[in-house]
Write a sequence for this structure.
């Protein structure tokens, strides 16, 4: 390497290092340090795991954590089950222009702010909303019904927000599956079910995994949808973090919560990648 | 189930019905948001009171339209300011990163690449609080040491810009790297043979080739910045961007003025999306 190209290399390296160190690495180390410090007086702290102890001793906190995790897993499964047929339809049963149009239509929600999407669901589901009025008009229900402010509404919103992140990778992987493989499966006497299980799903596995990882992460870290669509009892863990940071100003506990959430989401991502024998570079770096 | 394999009609039609239902589900919330922007009522809900443009241009309370609602116009300005900075920074750093990862081999490259991808899997709220905590502790240290004020490191626009920049840069890097990988280095070599300087060759040959990707990444960065909520929520100070302002209004009960803003946002996004597609087109 000549001196000049060495200089060029370091000039290119600088923005990257500056970005990663000051905005990603150091802040997360800092977050961890704050999470293991306990306040014992005005601007006096000592190191300890007290904040984590608070989390495990207070049922409200760990129950909300578990609830958030389970509902996110459920959202992921629901998204996969609902999205797979649509992705399969787009990838295998449509051609040319129809295919492009349907695929682009799936992307529309992405171009619209999450706030707007959630607002749309509020208009649809509230007591004076479109759905309630429609059902009264058709005579299914007698009076106005509140569909908003419950866990079902949260699920509808979460699935809506994240389904495109499931469909896009699924369409991409299913698209690369050669039709003749499926035909061969039928020729060899396979049933629709066995072909699904032994040809289509194994082939689509990379797409399934990357879709599931993204959807799970997005649901876990979501704040808007659970807060706006959920009721008074529908707590979400990001809501607790916000409360500790902004309302209670208890940054130590809030940091501990944040770190737990980060640990959970990283673990799931790691397990997902390990189970499917993929690397982060392949799955995310497309 | 593929077109060449015969299926019963019942199966075929129920499958089609399912896919149709799915697209209705996809379109429904966006449609109602748009439709109720024109409802002549102070609530964005039924009954339908008639068509009005008051939520866009109205001047008399309670029908104050978007264009006369100061708080919303100011928030749009703030969002645009933030988005410009974020897009500019993200595209600049993204371009540098692309050259670094595509053109250079060095020790620790794989590790840095994974580190570069990490912002994709860190939840936005966590990214927000970690930057908040870090900036505050830096500010505290500096203030103790120098007895001066470092308000820029307290929640506010600077932190919002940094917070959004911290993960949008990853997208910019991926988009621009993908394009740079397709570049034929012999073109640059030809420029060098013809007497161009190294930097001259990059500026005259490589950067014009990257231009569509750079513009595309910029458009996506602007969109992501405009839409971002989670990271921004944790870092916002007194000047709030549009999504935060709308969220506050939504919590305190909504009027169709929010529908009108949403409709405008959709139109802007659609325009930007088309722009990104056009840049994508010009690649081929």
């Amino acid at each position: 390497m000549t001196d000049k190209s060495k200089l060029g290399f370091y000039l290119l390296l600088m923005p990257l290092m500056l970005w990663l160190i000051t905005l990603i690495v150091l802040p997360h180390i800092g977050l961890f340090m704050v999470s293991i410090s306990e306040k014992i007086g005005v601007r006096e702290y000592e190191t300890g795991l007290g904040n984590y102890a608070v989390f495990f001793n207070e049922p409200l906190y760990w129950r909300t954590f578990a609830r958030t995790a389970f509902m996110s897993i459920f959202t992921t499964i629901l998204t996969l089950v609902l999205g797979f047929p649509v992705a399969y339809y787009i990838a295998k049963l449509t051609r040319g222009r129809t295919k492009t149009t349907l695929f682009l239509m799936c992307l529309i929600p992405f171009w619209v702010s999450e706030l707007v999407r959630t607002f749309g669901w509020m208009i649809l589901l509230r007591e004076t909303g479109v759905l309630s009025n429609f059902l009264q008009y058709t005579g299914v229900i007698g009076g106005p019904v509140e569909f908003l402010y419950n866990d079902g509404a949260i699920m509808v919103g979460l699935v809506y927000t994240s389904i495109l992140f499931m469909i896009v990778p699924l369409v991409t992987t299913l698209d690369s599956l050669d039709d003749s493989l499926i035909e061969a499966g039928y020729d060899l006497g396979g049933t629709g079910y066995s072909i699904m299980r032994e040809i289509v799903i194994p082939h689509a596995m990379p797409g399934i995994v990357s879709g599931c990882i993204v959807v799970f992460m997005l649901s876990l870290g979501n704040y808007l949808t659970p807060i706006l669509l959920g009721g008074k009892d529908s707590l979400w863990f990001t809501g607790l973090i916000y409360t500790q940071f902004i309302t209670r100003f208890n940054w130590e506990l809030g940091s501990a919560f944040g770190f737990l959430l980060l640990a959970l989401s990283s673990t799931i991502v790691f397990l997902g990648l390990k189970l499917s024998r993929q690397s982060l570079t392949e799955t995310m770096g497309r | 189930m593929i077109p060449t394999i015969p299926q019963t009609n019942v199966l075929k039609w129920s499958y089609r019905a399912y896919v149709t239902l799915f697209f209705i589900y996809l379109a429904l919330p966006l449609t109602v948001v748009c439709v109720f922007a024109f409802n002549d009522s102070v609530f964005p809900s039924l009954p339908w009171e008639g068509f009005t443009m008051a939520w866009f241009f109205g001047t008399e309370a309670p029908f104050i339209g978007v264009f006369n609602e100061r708080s919303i116009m100011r928030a749009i300005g703030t969002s645009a300011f933030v988005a410009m900075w974020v897009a500019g920074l993200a595209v600049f750093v993204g371009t540098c990163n692309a050259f670094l990862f595509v053109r250079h081999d060095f020790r620790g490259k794989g590790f840095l690449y994974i580190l570069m991808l990490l912002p994709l899997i860190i939840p936005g709220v966590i990214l927000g609080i970690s930057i908040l905590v870090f900036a505050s502790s830096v500010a505290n240290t500096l203030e103790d040491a120098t007895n001066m004020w470092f308000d820029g490191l307290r929640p506010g626009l600077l932190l919002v810009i940094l917070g959004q920049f911290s993960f949008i840069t990853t997208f910019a890097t991926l988009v621009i790297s993908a394009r740079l990988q397709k570049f034929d280095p012999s073109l640059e070599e030809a420029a060098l043979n013809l007497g161009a300087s190294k930097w001259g060759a990059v500026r005259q040959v490589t950067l014009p080739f990257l231009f569509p990707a750079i513009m595309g990444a910029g458009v996506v960065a602007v969109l992501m910045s405009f839409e971002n909520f989670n990271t921004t929520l944790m870092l916002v100070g007194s000047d709030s961007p549009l999504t935060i302002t709308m969220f506050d209004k939504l919590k305190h009960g909504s009027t169709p003025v929010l529908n009108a803003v949403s409709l405008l946002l959709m139109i802007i996004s659609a325009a930007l999306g088309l722009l990104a597609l056009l840049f994508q087109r010009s690649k081929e």
Summary: Chain B has a mean pLDDT of 83.
